[in-house]
Specification:
Blueprint: H1 10-35, H2 41-53, H3 58-65, H4 69-81, E1 85-90, E2 93-101, H5 103-116
Antiparallel strand pairs: 1-2
Length: 123
Amino acid sequence: MPTKATDIPLSERAAHLRTAIVRTARRLRQEAAAETSGLTPTSVAALATIERHGPLTPSEIAAIERVKRPTITRTLGCLEREGLIDRAPDPADGRSSLVSVNGAGREGCGACAAARTPTWRAA
């Protein structure tokens, strides 16, 4: 006899849901990366974060993305080499910079969003 969802403890259902969400998010990042000239999922996520919340310092991006500062430094280097972001001196801290998405980066983010958004047709 099949087990009803209400028979499974809430903590176990929550763990299963979390796993499903993590796997789905990973798959979406991988698909988005394939659509953006081979950027890594980390780069795509960072680019989207900068577009959504920017301009940001590298430390702020690392905090939002929940990665360490050296990881985001490498990621920003990749995005900069691809010509997707711009850096400007941080007026509040001369040792840091503010990172923003440029026109090419916005186009890349738009392409990622379009690739993830299904197109529905009326039957």
